[in-house]
């Protein structure tokens, strides 16, 4: 499945890397049900699902760095958008997986979700690691509570 390139290198060539942006296609009807299921499975894999939320880049990619703004950090609103897409696609179990991670993160940040935080996994850090200069709280991160609530309340 070809989903396009997030970054371009210095010469304008697309960089072939797995990023969380593919999750924004979930629930849009642009993917088949099989493609949606494949994307969702990938996004809840430990390479993306850090235990605290969805990394912006898979941890096995060459450009991954947990403190990179777009190549490894976790953005609560990005995770929320993906959760919403999973719900629209009927992928409730996957939506709940990411939702539970954001609930743990919100608890760790005293209910004040930051703009973003480091993509270290829960197996690497006992709590989510703050990103330098990240706004906290951040309004668009707080909006992630809506799909999280919907996923955890879904039957």
Number of strands: 0
Return residue spans where pLDDT drops below 50 for at least 5 consecutive residues: none
Estimated structural class: mainly alpha
- Mean pLDDT metric: 93
Provide the β-strand percentage band: under 5%
Helical content (DSSP H or I, runs of 4+): 25-40%
Report the total helices.
5
Let me know the largest β-sheet: none
Query: What is the N-to-C order of secondary-structure elements (H for helix, E for strand)?
Result: HHHHH
- Gyration radius, rounded: 15 Å
Shape: globular
Describe the fold and architecture:
With 155 residues, the protein is mainly alpha-helical. It contains 5 helices and no strands. It has helices at residues 33-44, 76-88, 92-108, 139-142, 145-153. The longest helix has 17 residues, at 92-108. The radius of gyration is 15 Å and the shape is globular. It starts with 32 loop residues before the first helix and ends with a helix.
């Amino acid at each position: 499945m070809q989903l396009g390139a997030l970054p371009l290198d210095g010469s304008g060539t697309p960089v072939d890397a797995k990023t969380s942006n593919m999750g924004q296609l979930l629930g849009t009807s642009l993917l088949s049900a099989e493609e949606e299921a494949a994307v969702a499975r990938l996004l809840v894999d430990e390479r993306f699902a850090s235990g605290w939320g969805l990394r912006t880049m898979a941890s096995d990619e060459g450009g991954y760095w947990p403190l990179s703004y777009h190549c490894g950090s976790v953005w609560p609103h990005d995770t929320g958008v993906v959760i919403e897409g999973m719900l629209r696609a009927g992928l409730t179990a996957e939506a709940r997986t990411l939702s539970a991670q954001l609930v743990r993160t919100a608890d760790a940040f005293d209910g004040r979700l930051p703009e973003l935080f480091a993509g270290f996994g829960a197996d690497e850090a006992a709590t989510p690691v703050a990103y330098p200069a990240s706004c906290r709280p951040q309004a668009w991160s707080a909006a992630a509570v809506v799909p999280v609530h919907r996923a955890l309340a879904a039957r």
